[in-house]
Every structure is written in C-alpha cells, then in structure tokens.
Amino acid sequence: MEELTQNHYTYSSIRSLLYEAIVNAYVHSQSPDEALYFLHEMIHKGNSPISNTFNNLLNLLIRSNSFCRAWLVFDELKNKVVLDVYSFGIMIKGCCEAGDLLKSFQLLSMMEKTGLSPNVVIYTTLIDGCCKNGDVHLAKKLFCKMKGLDLVANQHTYSVLINGFFKQGLQKEGFQ
C-alpha cells in the first residue's frame, strides 16, 4: 500500500481512483482506522470520495459497534460527500440499533430536506427501531405515513410491526 500511495501525485483522476481502491481494500479487510486515514488523506488532497466508498466505511463502523465513531465521520463529512439513500439508511439503522430514535428521526428529516425520498427499507428500519424501543404506536404511525406515500410494505415490514405489537402484548392490534 505504501508503494501505491508514494506515486499518487501524477494524475488527479488516477489519484482519486487509487484512494477509492485503498479505502475499499481496508474496509473489506475490516481495518477501519486505516480506511479512515486514507479517506481523510483523499479529501485533504482535494478528492471527494464517491458515496459507495463512504457508505462502505460507515457500514463497517456500524457493524464494528463503533456507532459514535460512525456518527462523527458522518457529521464531519456530510458536506464533502454526496449522500444518498444508502448513506442515510446506514446511519438510521445505526441510530435505531443504538436506541437513539431522536437522531434517527433527525436523519430522516435531513434526508427529506436534501431532496431524497425515504424508501420502504428506511421506513421498515424506523418501524423496527420504534418497536424495539417499545413505541409500537409510533411504529404504526410510520407505517400509515409510508402507505400514504404510496410505498408498498413488504413481508419484512409486516413481520417487524406484528412482532412489535405481540411483544407489547397487543395481539389484537398486531392482527389489524
């Protein structure tokens, strides 16, 4: 890797592709520190990572139970990377898994303000987060909002919602 980075000053596009490859290689080898280092180097040298590279790194941090670190990276770089639905989905899932529903809804709002439309996966993730945090009624409201946006719930969405109601002892509502 060191040899690759020593020759990176030749062409801007090659340099950008090289950094992308290095960051992704470290992500795939489960090395978040190194991936973050090269991502920051890439940005410092004037190159913006593509959203896929950024998303891969965020996903690695979330899967490594480094949610706080993922949040810091997201917050620091959100204006330097083109965010997409997947960027927000990864972070919303991380917030829900960390039990921070407030942040997950802030991300939903931020997502909508940037002109991105939440999809069924985003809503199902939020519904699951609400259910796991004991707020099945908010989950039901999200489900209704999702349907109002003409998003079609899938089997996973129904399963999450039904399980949420059952865990709260609300079997009747779970069948509705």
Cα-to-Cα separation, first versus last residue: 57 Å
For the sheet with most strands, the description reads: none
What class do helices, strands and sheet pairing give? mainly alpha
Sequence stretches where pLDDT stays below 50 over 5 or more residues: none
Share of residues in strands = under 5%
The whole-number mean of residue pLDDT values reads: 86
The percent range for helix content is over 70%
Number of strands: 0
Indicate the overall shape.
Answer: elongated
**H/E element sequence:** HHHHHHHHHHH
Pfam family, one: PPR
GO molecular function: mRNA binding
InterPro entries: Mito_RNA-Proc/Resp, PPR_rpt, TPR-like_helical_dom_sf
Protein name: Pentatricopeptide repeat-containing protein
Structural features, described:
With 176 residues, this protein is mainly α. The chain has a domain at 1-60. It has helices at residues 2-6, 12-28, 32-44, 51-63, 67-77, 85-97, 101-113, 120-132, 136-148, 155-167, 171-175. Helix 2 packs parallel to helix 4 (51-63), helix 8 (120-132) runs antiparallel to helix 9 (136-148) and helix 8 (120-132) packs parallel to helix 10. GO terms for molecular function: mRNA binding. InterPro entries: Mito_RNA-Proc/Resp, PPR_rpt, TPR-like_helical_dom_sf.
